[in-house]
Design a protein that fits this description.
This protein is an alpha+beta fold and 163 residues long. Helices cover 36% and strands 28% of the residues.
């Protein structure tokens, strides 16, 4: 039992957020990327972790961006993160007034749970995000209204001609 508990604690520490920042959202680029200005006058580009939203040129891309902007543009947010992506963007979970903004995009059917990177989420978030996607899909909310919505990772491949 002690070994199992030690493994659980070790796993949780690997997926928990190591850093955080707080600032004002000054730009919403798309449905999963924003710029946050901190009190020290630094701008940080933040990619929302655990989700992948439609590209702007894709169906529901503009709706996803607008919904995110309606939620957080001009607001003070908290970003919890533990990595940067290949473009040096912070990859993090954004909350405003304690509400998980990333999760809200999934619930509204305006983003996929990004399962390719789900191992970077803590176990609880992974489960909550997957269930939110299932419910949105079942209820045909947002992009799930389409019979076969194209995930953004496939859309990007098609756009680059890597099909």
């Amino acid at each position: 039992m002690k070994i199992i508990l030690a493994l659980i604690l070790a796993f949780t520490s690997l997926t928990s957020f190591a850093d955080q920042l707080q600032g004002k959202v000054i730009k919403v680029t798309d449905g999963d990327t924003v710029n946050v200005l901190t009190d020290d006058n630094q701008t940080h580009k933040v990619r929302l972790s655990g989700i992948d939203a439609p590209e702007k040129s894709q169906a529901f891309g503009n709706k996803s961006k607008q919904a995110l902007a309606d939620d957080i543009d001009g607001k003070t947010v908290r970003v919890e993160f533990n990595k940067r992506d290949k473009y040096q963007r912070i990859v993090g979970k954004i909350t405003v007034n304690g509400k998980d903004v990333n999760l809200n995009q999934i619930k509204r059917g305006l983003a996929w749970h990004y399962k390719k990177y789900e191992n970077e989420q803590d176990v609880e978030d992974r489960s909550i995000y997957a269930n939110a996607e299932y419910l949105a899909q079942r209820d045909k909310i947002g992009l799930w209204f389409d019979a076969n919505p194209i995930p953004p990772w496939d859309f990007r491949k098609q756009k680059r001609g890597l099909n």
